[in-house]
Specification:
With about 375 residues, the protein is of the alpha/beta class. It is built from 15 helices and 13 strands. It is about 45% helix and about 15% strand. Helix 12 links the parallel strand 12 and strand 13. The structure holds ligand GMT. Ligand GMT binds next to helix 1.
Length: about 375
């Protein structure tokens, strides 16, 4: 198949999922055309069958705001026409589904050279639970989702939320996010030994959190949980990523007198190595439709302590792959962490289960679900 994929190229899990999907599909022999305003960050290295088309946005004094949605639709039209695409796949509904709708209608309307292209929208998270609900987007979002030829959501939670909140009857297929279990696996080599020595010189346990430090990730809770845990067990905390809450998090750690015990790493490429030296992954989010960062940790055999929101309980099974508590229940999350870190037998069991759960969501299991869905939509 020849598929056009549109996603946000620089930030967030939806872009990661879209890019990894495109790469996996290309390796399975499909021709993939990424259409975006910049090269997706994960699209590093040459892969046969992958093409990248940059959306051109010309500035003009009259346009105070860049007209990206229109420029994207025009680029989609061009790429479909000149590359003979079979399907467009929009990741994150705003504004990608709307642009895809526009492109489909433009191509259909051409009198001499009409093309009947279909498009699929994959819903990821805040496109539904937050931004899409704003009055300035809601009617357009509902329309674009309803007019999509196929819709997928990354969790049952997100499917149900979309149907309820947007009053949409349309069938939404749940295709969970996936992981390359051969890449995301616990490493034990010179590099990880060196990391471990650096982070936990006296054999301390290591807790880890990775995110984009937005308010909804509740990174301050991670710090408070850590503060409780380290009173009972010698532990260090690694915080990976960067974002608007980082300054407040650093201030909170200083106020609590634990700044020296925490490594604020910023954005990092060596995620597998960092996860490989970690004992517990903490994700206390206020909203999380799936939790790709938790899946990455689980694939490296790291049990997860999460909040009970959104799609997290579908991924992290309470008492099996980790533990779940109510949003903001720092005390309970800390208690679970202490329990786990002080019982090696139980820890080993949960670590093995976390890896097994990740294997269920391996690229090899999930990518064929997209292929099947594509075939179904293309054949009408
Ligand atoms: O929805 C967002 O906040 C952005 C989006 C992204 O681009 O990172 O994240 C969502 O999509 C990820 C990939 O499907 C999921 O793993 C995240 O749980 C989800 N984020 C939220 O629901 C907050």
């Amino acid at each position: 198949m020849k598929i056009g994929i549109t996603c946000y190229p620089t930030y967030g899990g939806s872009g990661v999922v879209a890019t990894e999907l495109g790469k996996a599909l290309a390796l399975r022999g499909h021709e993939i055309h990424f259409i975006s305003y910049a090269m997706p960050t994960r699209l590093n290295g040459f892969i046969d069958n992958i093409f990248y088309h940059e959306v051109e946005i010309n500035s003009y004094p009259l346009f105070e705001f860049p007209l990206y949605s229109i420029a994207l639709a025009s680029k989609m039209v061009e790429v479909v026409r000149f590359n003979d695409l079979d399907l467009l796949h929009a990741h994150y509904a705003i504004p990608h589904a709307t642009s895809a709708y526009l492109a489909r209608e433009i191509l259909k309307s051409e009198t001499n050279n009409s093309i009947d292209i279909k498009f699929i929208t994959t819903l990821h998270g805040t496109d539904i639970t937050l931004t899409g609900l704003e009055p300035s987007f809601l009617p357009t979002m509902k329309f674009s989702i309803e007019k999509s030829d196929g819709v997928t959501a990354v969790s049952k939670f997100l499917r149900d939320k979309t149907q309820q909140q947007y009053k949409i009857n349309k069938e939404i297929e749940v295709i969970p996010n996936f992981i390359d279990v051969n890449k995301y696996k616990r490493e034990e080599d010179e590099k990880t030994k060196c990391f471990k020595k650096n982070f936990a010189p006296n054999g301390e346990k290591i807790m880890i959190h990775t995110s984009n430090f937005r308010a909804l990730k509740r990174v301050q809770d991670v710090i408070k949980i850590f503060d409780e845990v380290k009173k009972k067990i010698d532990t260090k905390l690694i915080l990976v990523g960067d974002g608007p809450e980082r300054g407040d998090c650093e201030r909170l750690s200083r106020e609590l007198g634990i700044f020296e015990e925490i490594k604020f790493m910023g954005k990092q490429d060596s995620l597998v190595e960092l996860l490989s030296v970690s004992d517990i992954f903490v994700i206390p989010s206020q909203s999380e439709s799936f939790g790709l960062a938790a899946l990455e940790a689980m694939s490296c055999g790291v049990p997860v302590i999460s909040s009970s929101v959104g799609g997290l309980p579908e991924l992290n099974h309470h008492g099996e792959t980790g533990y779940i508590a109510e949003i903001g229940d720092v005390e309970r999350m800390a208690k679970y962490a202490v329990e786990l870190l002080s019982n090696q037998k139980r820890y080993d069991l949960l670590s093995a289960n976390a890896r097994k759960r990740a294997e269920e969501l391996s690229e090899n299991n999930i990518v064929p679900m997209y292929e099947k869905f594509y075939e179904k939509i293309i054949s009408g």
